[in-house]
Write a structure and sequence with these properties.
Helix content: 25-40%
Shape: globular
Largest sheet: 7 strands, mixed
Order of helices and strands: HEEEHEHHHHEHEHHEHEEE
Radius of gyration: 20 Å
Strand order of the largest sheet: 6-5-1-7-8-9-10
Structural class: alpha/beta
Distance between the termini: 40 Å
Number of helices: 10
């Protein structure tokens, strides 16, 4: 059955981004005149958008649940069960009832389908869009907008484990609500903890790789897809933004390996914080600080955009 996605847009609560769309011209890729393309890779949570999807950990003695935000998880997950205030808790990897159950597609019953019950990713995005822009637009939002507006090839590489279609449906909600001019030019979508994607595409048949390692595999696959689709041009530019320090570390390691394979292409890693960023260019023998700074006020998109690379 072919699914038809409705594209009718609403007027967003904050119209600044929409108004800007009528004023700004399309920008060509940095190395367009040389046949090169700029490829943008994005983590989603706390990087493109802030969502309230809870992460659940469990008390070792009582089994009582405690919820965490994705931001808290990025800061403290390495201490769970080991030290600090979370030493008495544990992580449950069961997809239906465990720690990340809200980051997976739920199995809907026949009745759920009749009443059109939504996956949590979609309902969390709808909830976020009811808030002011600055409440849900994360550090790389304006870069995501810039890449989408200018039809840059985009990869979404997220720790979530939904189906690919669910991630795209969620972004379609943002489009229909007027916050994006149209859907992204998808190069790839990798919800890296989806079991089937792990087994079939990310070389993890036994489901043992960490999220950071899975993202490394997804980055390599995305670069290879880019070259397959757009040609092996030495003037291609690749960059990925992420907010998790551990992910950034392994993303940098993977970019270094890719630089060895494609030495003439450019590779960048951008670590985003709540109101700032650090951009690193990967060189053949070392890395170079390619820029850092404060992120602009997300309610004023007419300010200079963070284009990353």
């Amino acid at each position: 059955m072919i699914k038809i996605r409705l594209k009718r847009k609403k007027v967003p609560l904050n119209q600044a981004q929409m108004e800007l769309s009528f004023q700004r011209p399309l920008e060509k890729d940095r190395n367009h005149h040389l046949g090169g393309r700029s490829f943008y890779f994005f983590d989603f949570d706390d990087n493109v958008a802030y969502l309230t999807t809870p992460i659940v950990i469990f008390n070792k003695k009582t089994g009582a649940e405690r919820t965490m935000s994705s931001g808290e998880w990025a800061s403290y997950h390495h201490t769970i069960g080991k030290e600090g205030p979370l030493k008495d808790y544990f992580i449950d990897y069961d997809d239906e009832h465990g720690t990340f159950r809200y980051f997976r597609d739920q199995k809907h019953t026949f009745i759920d389908k009749i009443v059109r019950k939504k996956q949590t990713f979609l309902s969390d995005i709808e909830k976020a869009l009811q808030q002011a822009d600055y409440s849900w637009k994360a550090p790389s939002w304006n870069c995501f907008y810039h890449a989408t507006y200018n039809h840059r090839p985009i990869s979404v590489i997220t720790a979530r484990g939904h189906q690919i279609e669910t991630i795209q449906d969620g972004i379609d909600v943002i489009v229909r609500n007027g916050h994006l001019p149209h859907g992204p030019n998808y190069l790839s979508v990798y919800p890296v903890t989806n079991p089937e994607i792990r087994k079939q595409e990310l070389n993890d048949p036994e489901l043992k790789l960490s999220v950071a390692d899975l993202k490394r595999e997804a980055i390599r696959n995305s670069v290879e897809k880019a070259i397959e689709k757009y040609g092996n041009n030495p003037h291609h530019r690749f960059g990925m933004s992420d907010d998790d320090p551990k992910n950034v570390e392994l993303i940098t390691t993977e970019m270094k390996e890719l630089k060895k394979i494609y030495p003439e292409m450019s590779f960048f890693v951008i670590q985003t914080f709540e109101d700032s960023y650090v951009k690193t260019e990967i060189l053949e023998q070392k890395t170079r600080n390619a820029g850092k700074g404060k992120l602009q006020n997300l309610t004023k998109p007419s300010q200079p955009q963070l284009k990353l690379f």
